[in-house]
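Appendix B. One record, verbatim.
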Amino acid sequence: MNLGAFSISLNVKDINKSKSFYENLGFQIFGGNIEQNWLIMKNESCVIGIFQGMFEKNILTFNPGWNENAENLESFTDIRELQKQLKAKGIKLLSEADESSEGPAHLIIEDPDGNSILLDQHRSN
């Protein structure tokens, strides 16, 4: 099962302090909008998102159809197909993609320890 590019989305208390901290670790701004309290930062192939006030806990994020540079992959497994595979394995979905739709969609699952996992597809297949 290929889930796409991986990043972690961090719930931060002060986006400016977090930005400075991760810059000191070698991360650079890759996307986002600090005025909207979110940034995507990158250090080589490692990607983190820092988000202030947008969600309660950290989230493991996968982006079907993208590589770690947010570039479209030539081929990938659509999120609706991934959703069918997850359901067939008995994995409970907290949020589902509309299986009758096409293009961008997302779903959310949790691991056994309550860690949220977001599959967030931003493009059409």
